[in-house]
Backbone:
């Protein structure tokens, strides 16, 4: 993971910070430079961090299909943010 992303994630204090609309510009700049595969993987990780609610029995409460859908929605929101800033 890119050092800028690691620093951002280490400083998270509230889940709303993971919303694509709330990402710092330096994080967005790193994301837009990623390869499509790396970007989708990172969006999946961010979406899971944002939406997953661990249970007593499992650290991951989302199904694979839910994670894919959330990652796609996250990527779409990120694209919308980048388009708005241009």
Residues:
């Amino acid at each position: 993971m890119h050092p800028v992303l690691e620093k951002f994630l280490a400083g998270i204090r509230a889940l709303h910070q993971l919303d694509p609309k709330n990402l710092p510009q330096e994080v967005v700049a790193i994301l837009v430079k990623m390869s499509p595969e790396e970007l989708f993987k990172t969006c999946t990780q961010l979406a899971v961090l944002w939406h997953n609610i661990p249970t007593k029995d499992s650290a991951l409460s989302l199904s694979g299909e839910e994670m894919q859908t959330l990652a796609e929605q996250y990527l779409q929101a990120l694209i919308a943010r980048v388009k708005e800033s241009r």
